[in-house]
Structures are given as structure tokens and as C-alpha cells.
Design brief:
The protein is α/β, with parallel strands linked by helices. The chain is built from 20 helices and eleven strands. The protein folds into two domains: about 80 residues, no CATH class; about 325 residues, TIM Barrel (Alpha-Beta Barrel), CATH 3.20.20. Strands 4-5-6-7-8-9-10-11 form an eight-stranded parallel beta barrel, surrounded by six helices.
């Protein structure tokens, strides 16, 4: 095993050891954090040889486990929220499209400063493609960032908008659902124990009744729920989310929530299968915000009254944690304090952090110009008639995070540190407004992470039926 790890292990052998049998021990935690993990995570993302890359990823997972860092499901916390035992805060779910290691380090620093408990690290089906971050890579980078910042505890990895493509579904319903199942399997195997199913794309508003309008959505979500339950490692209940209103469409209603849930429960059956823990709704936002001709984002008037009534109905009638708000990162600062007040259980944040990276004064102008030139060549077909260049770049630049991943990763340390510091300040602000500061003990009481066994890349068995680490239980 040590031979497979190659140069990263040889350079940092005084920080940790890996036996050929797959036994991992941390020898010096300071050296691991301050010297070794940066090199390991770089190899985990960019090593060309698949065998060595997989070995490094396995080592990072093992080192995270040895450090008390465990991928976990938020299900039990959300169940407590649904029972009314826990309230008063909104869980932030953060999509990280670029500079993933540096951005996640900023999140863990902000979490540490505020003793923040629940934060979901998520990536959407579409983002997996254009950011070139498969679930296994994404998970390993986040675990490495946790090691780097000295975090210990559960890490909530989430598949966001695991979405049905309406056009593909119309042509081949079974094939599109099968493709989504394959992605769910890949995600769960990578440690994503939180998955949001989005079949709101096949809601048919032309149908005569609300239940008929929501039928395909409810049916697919139930089918996916049952499939995911069959993937769960022993002791883990994956937190599954549903969605009733496509973001950017018309606002959701309590009647739609009830229709969706009633059909969903019938489709799930009476076999005792645990259902969804939350429901995503539409209340006036759009992903990325509404872009004005000068490239700035228009202020959106979010319907907090609808959000509050939907969250209340979700909890009181169906025992869910509440409603989930998407597309929120570009809202004005004063809006974020309203989410806990309205009982919103979760809020999704993405584009605002992307904007902070590209618009940061230290971000190299030459790299930005190069990325925008790439947009002109590769995204020209997405430019709408009458759209200004600023509007086009604002919407298209998210797709540059994959092609320019290595160049962004290799930015000088002082540039990445400056961007990371501003991101950390933003996360501290958001965590305060969402009232998750001081919630670490709440998570400690409600969430009991399961140390799911995993084997070295060679498949060789180790003590305990999976990864062998230096002590029996995770944690300090």
C-alpha cells in the first residue's frame, strides 16, 4: 500500500504511516495538518495514475477517520426538528464549485470559530459535470479540508438536485430514472448520506387536479427513496429530500405540498420504509439570481409568508423538518435572518461564493480573461438574443471551474489565502444570521455518526472488515 501511495507518502512519512496491510496511523498531527495533507489532497485530485490516485484518496479517508472526521446523515437531527424538539435555526447547505479545498477550509474555520454544528457540503448533478468533481473526489477534498483545519465530528455530504431531465424523461422514462439511480449509488458509496431528489421538473400543470399534476414527481421520488434505502450502509439512514416546485417557476402552495405528500406516501407503500425528511419549495428565487444588463443581480422579493406556511404544514402534518429554500446566496444580507424566523429547515447557497471568487480584487485578471474567452468559444450557443456580455459571462462562467480547475488550484498561496479570508468572513456572517452559531452540542445530542467500513483499493481485508486505523473508535 505504501508503494501505491508514491511520492506524497514518501515525502510525508514522518506525519503518518501506512502498512502494506492497510493499517493507517497518524504519527504527528501537526505535520499532517501543516505539511502533509496539502500534498495528499493535490494528488487525490490531479494524480494521473488511477491506482495511485485511488490509494491517496483511500489514505485521506483513513486519516480523516483516525482524526474523528466521519461522513454522516443529518436524518436524526431533521427528525428531531419534525417532532418539534429542535428549532430556532436554519441549516446552511453550501455548493462549492471552484477552489473547493480553499473554500471548504474557510467553512471549517468559520464553523470552528462559532461552534457551528450542521452544515451540508453539497454538489448538484449539473455541477458534478461542469465543475469536473465526481462524488468521490468532492468528498475526499472536503475531508482533507477538515483535517487541515483541525475539525472533528460529522461531515454532512449531500447530493443536491439529483434531478430528472424532463426532455430525456419524455423520450425514455425508465432510462432517465435508471441514470439517476446510478448517480445515487455512486454518491452513497462516496459517503453522501444526504440526497435531494428533484423530480419537480416533470410536474405537469396542465393536468386537471393537483394530485395528477404532482403524480410523476411523487412516483419518481418514492421510487428513488426505496432505491436509496437499499443502498444504505448498516446503521445509516440516508436523509432524502423531495421537491414540489422547480426553482425559478411559480411559487409553491400548501395544497401542492399536501398533494405531493399524499401521493408520495401511497407510492412508498405500507412496508415501513422511511420517507423524506424535508421538502424543497419555490418562493420567488432563481438559481444565480436575476441578472441585469450591467451584470449585477436584481433584488428579489422572496415570499417569506409562503415559506413559513409551507414549513409549518410540512412539520405539523407530515413530520418533516420543514421547507427548503434554494437559490438564496444572492439575496440581500438582510434577508437571511428571516429564514430561522419562518421555520425554514434548510437553505441552499452557491452562486454568491462563485461570484466572490471571480470578482475578488486579488483574482488574476489574466486568468479571468482566459476563462471568459473560453466562455465565448464554448458557451456561445447559450447566449440569448439581446443579452449583454456582462449577463452572458455572469451565467456562463460557472462552467469554467472544471476546465480551469488546475489553474485555480495552483494560484499563489497569498491569493488563495486572501480569497479564503473573505469567504470565511461571509460564512461567519451567514452562520450568525441563520442562527447555527453554538449548535454543535445540538448536533452532538441528535446525530451519532456511523464509522462505515471501507477497504483499501486493493480490496485486501483489514482488521474490522474495512479500514484499519490506530484506535477502535473515531473521535478525539
Amino acid at each position: 500500500m505504501s508503494a501505491l501511495l508514491g511520492a506524497p507518502f514518501e515525502s510525508y512519512g514522518d506525519a503518518f504511516s501506512v502498512s502494506d496491510a492497510g493499517l493507517v496511523r497518524i504519527l504527528d498531527r501537526v505535520k499532517l495538518r501543516e505539511r502533509a495533507i496539502d500534498g495528499l489532497v493535490t494528488a487525490a485530485v490531479f494524480e494521473a495514475d488511477p491506482a495511485r490516485r485511488n490509494a491517496v484518496r483511500w489514505a485521506i479517508r483513513a486519516l480523516a477517520r483516525e482524526s474523528g472526521i466521519v461522513p454522516a446523515s443529518i436524518q436524526s437531527l431533521y427528525e428531531a426538528m419534525g417532532r418539534g424538539e429542535v428549532s430556532g435555526f436554519t441549516v446552511p447547505a453550501v455548493n462549492i464549485r471552484g477552489l473547493t479545498y480553499d473554500c471548504t477550509r474557510a467553512i471549517f474555520r468559520a464553523m470552528g470559530a462559532g461552534r457551528v454544528g450542521p452544515v451540508l457540503f453539497e454538489i448538484a448533478k449539473s455541477e458534478i459535470g461542469y465543475t469536473e468533481q465526481r462524488p468521490d473526489e468532492y468528498a475526499v477534498v472536503i475531508l482533507a479540508a477538515a483535517i487541515r483545519e483541525g475539525y472533528a465530528g460529522p461531515v454532512f455530504l449531500q447530493g443536491d438536485h439529483f434531478q430528472i431531465n424532463a426532455k430525456k424523461f419524455g423520450a425514455d422514462p425508465a432510462g432517465e430514472v435508471s441514470a439517476l439511480k446510478a448517480l445515487a449509488r455512486e454518491a452513497v458509496e462516496a459517503g453522501f448520506y444526504n440526497i435531494d431528489i428533484d423530480a419537480s421538473t416533470v410536474v405537469d400543470l396542465s393536468k386537471g387536479t393537483i394530485e395528477d399534476q404532482q403524480f410523476n414527481n411523487s412516483h419518481i421520488t418514492a421510487e428513488m427513496t426505496k432505491f436509496i434505502r437499499g443502498l444504505e450502509p448498516k446503521g445509516v439512514t440516508v436523509s432524502v429530500g423531495g421537491e414540489i416546485g422547480e426553482v425559478g417557476g411559480k411559487n409553491s402552495t400548501v395544497e401542492e405540498l399536501s398533494a405531493f405528500m399524499d401521493v408520495y406516501r401511497r407510492e412508498l407503500g405500507s412496508g415501513g420504509i422511511k420517507g423524506i425528511s424535508k421538502i424543497s419549495v419555490q418562493t420567488g428565487t432563481s438559481h444565480g439570481g436575476v441578472v441585469l444588463p450591467d451584470g449585477t443581480v436584481a433584488k428579489v422579493k422572496l415570499d417569506f409568508g409562503t415559506l413559513e406556511s409551507l414549513s409549518k404544514a410540512a412539520r405539523e402534518k407530515y413530520g418533516l423538518s420543514g421547507a427548503v429554500q434554494h437559490g438564496a446566496s444572492t439575496l440581500p444580507d438582510e434577508a437571511f435572518g428571516r429564514f430561522p424566523e419562518t421555520g425554514t429547515s434548510e437553505v441552499h447557497l452557491a452562486t454568491g461564493f462563485q461570484n466572490m471568487i471571480y470578482e475578488h480584487p486579488r483574482f488574476p485578471a489574466a486568468l479571468k480573461d482566459k476563462a471568459y474567452d473560453w466562455c465565448r468559444t464554448n458557451c456561445a450557443g447559450e447566449r440569448k438574443q439581446g443579452e449583454t456580455e456582462e449577463q452572458f459571462f455572469y451565467k456562463a462562467r460557472k462552467k469554467t471551474f472544471g476546465p480551469f480547475k488546475k489553474e485555480m488550484w495552483d494560484l499563489p498561496g497569498e491569493i488563495r489565502d486572501a480569497i479564503g479570508a473573505d469567504l470565511e468572513a461571509k460564512f461567519r456572517f451567514l452562520f450568525d444570521k441563520l442562527r447555527v452559531v453554538g449548535t454543535r452540542d445540538v448536533v452532538g445530542r441528535t446525530v451519532k455518526p456511523v464509522a462505515v467500513p471501507f477497504s483499501p483499493p486493493s480490496g485486501q481485508a483489514t482488521k474490522g472488515g474495512g479500514v484499519a486505523i490506530g484506535r477502535d473508535e473515531p473521535g478525539e
